[in-house]
Design brief:
By secondary structure, the protein is α/β, with parallel strands linked by helices. It has one domain (26-193): Rossmann fold. Helix content is 53%, strand content 11%. The protein has a five-stranded parallel beta sheet with strand order 2-1-3-4-5, sandwiched between helices. Strand 1 (48-51), helix 3 and strand 2 form a beta-alpha-beta unit. Helix 2 packs across helix 8 (169-193) and helix 3 packs parallel to helix 8 (169-193). The protein is globular. The termini are far apart.
């Protein structure tokens, strides 16, 4: 019983230490930059796309749901889509083109200039995430990534790389969820505050223009 008590204490202290170090770092400024990217894109008729693998796929879906629905406050829905949810597309692309093209193919079909594309990768080297983000840049979208301690290949192909300084994969995933919740909360705050250059409460995003 004592050993288990020590386990819980150490596990929680380890996470508290990581959060405290992040609070003193420049990560808040990076997250604020990402929020600005999102709101400016949506204001201009853009859409937010997210993807990752495993737990990162779940985090991408969670974030998209908070943006389309709401987080803490009532506001206009934001156009967001996780490219991890359509099983027909995922299995067709995976079967016909390979797992490495899972997101690249969807980005080529859906993403337009001015959209924001966010990749999540704890290793920084997920091949399908790298390819999806490269495809997004080819389409003149803004790109960002939530990463672990090492930026890896993903970090080299995005406009904004936000890292979590730990080699613990579970803790990286936990902090990514924290970051995504804080991004949603910041968006809520900007809606309510009616900050210059952002959407105001009740204002709906501009419509996306059709191709051609």
């Amino acid at each position: 019983m004592v050993a288990e008590s020590i386990f819980w204490q150490r596990a929680l202290e380890e996470r508290a230490t990581l959060l405290a170090s992040l609070a003193k770092s420049s990560v808040g400024l990076q997250l604020d930059k990402l929020v600005t990217m999102i709101l400016e894109s949506v204001k201009g008729g853009g859409c937010i796309f997210l993807f990752g693998n495993g737990g990162s796929a779940a985090a991408a879906q969670h974030a998209a749901a908070e943006l389309v629905g709401r987080f803490l406050r009532k506001r206009a829905p934001l156009p967001a889509l996780a490219l991890t949810t359509d099983t027909s597309v995922l299995t067709a692309v995976g079967n016909d083109y390979g797992f490495e093209q899972l997101y690249e193919r969807q980005v080529e079909a859906l993403v337009r200039a001015g959209d924001v594309v966010i990749g999540l990768s704890t290793s920084g080297n997920s091949h399908n995430v790298v390819r999806g983000l490269r495809a997004a840049r080819r389409r003149d979208a803004l790109t960002a990534a939530l990463l672990g301690q090492t930026a890896g290949r993903v970090g080299r192909v995005v406009d904004l790389a936000i890292r979590v300084p730990t080699t613990s994969v579970p803790m990286v995933q936990e902090i990514h969820e924290c970051f995504l919740h804080l991004i949603c909360e910041s968006i809520d705050r900007r809606f309510t505050a009616r900050a210059p250059g952002s959407l105001t409460r009740g204002q709906t995003p501009a419509r996306r223009k059709g191709h051609g």
